[in-house]
Amino acid sequence: MDSVRLMASSHAIPMSERWSSPSTRIVKVNFDASLIRLHHLLFSGMIIRDNEGEVLVAGCFSHSHVLDPFAAEALACHKALALAHDLSFKRIIVEEDSLWVIKKVETFSKDRSLIGMLIKDIKRKLKGHYSLLPIS
After folding, report:
1. Any idea where the RNase H type-1 domain is (predicted)?
2. Count of CB atoms within 10 A of residue 71's CB?
3. What angle in degrees, to the nearest 10, is found between the helix axes of 116-126 and 99-106?
4. Whose CA is closest to 3, among 60, 66, 50?
5. % of residues, the chain, pLDDT over 70
6. Looking at CB atoms within 10 Å, which of 54, 80, 99, 134 has the fewest?
7. For strand 27-36 and strand 92-96, is the pairing parallel, antiparallel, or unpaired?
């Protein structure tokens, strides 16, 4: 699965088809990353909603020196988890569109890639409080 999702449609998708609500007292974090490879620049946006779809917080960030789309998605995931943690959300679901990041986080073996420490920190942040789900 590609880490960059392209939207070809010019019309909006109804909210009921593109976002499903979490259980009561759980918030859902959605985010996406975009990488300009030539300049190694990452741009990411995130949104945290409650179980009724009400936006609790939204944000964006940029980061330089990001070398590949995998690192971009992992860094965006890390930033989204850090935001949820900083805002003291205790029970969250993180929706991720990069199957690669999900597999890296779910594996029990030590990640020896260039972003291994970032994956390790994502695992630490997820432990006990959060769920990481693929976007269907």
Report:
1. 44-125
2. 22
3. 70
4. 66
5. 76
6. 54
7. parallel
Indicate the SS3 state at residue 26.
Answer: coil
First to last CA, the chain: 12
Q: What is the largest CA-CA distance in the chain?
A: 43
Q: What are the chain's domains?
A: 30-134 (3.30.420.10)
Q: How many CB atoms lie within 10 A of CB 98?
A: 24
Paired tokens of 27: 């918030």
Answer for the pair 76, 33: CB distance below 8 angstroms, yes or no: yes
- CB 68, CB 2: distance < 8 Å: no
pLDDT in tens, 6-43: 222 233 444 545 656 666 678 888 999 999 999 999 99
Query: Which residue, among 14, 86, 19, has the nearest Cα to 55 in the 3D structure?
Result: 19
Looking only at the bridges linking them, the beta strands covering 27-36 and 41-49 are antiparallel
The 3-state DSSP class for residue 59 equals strand
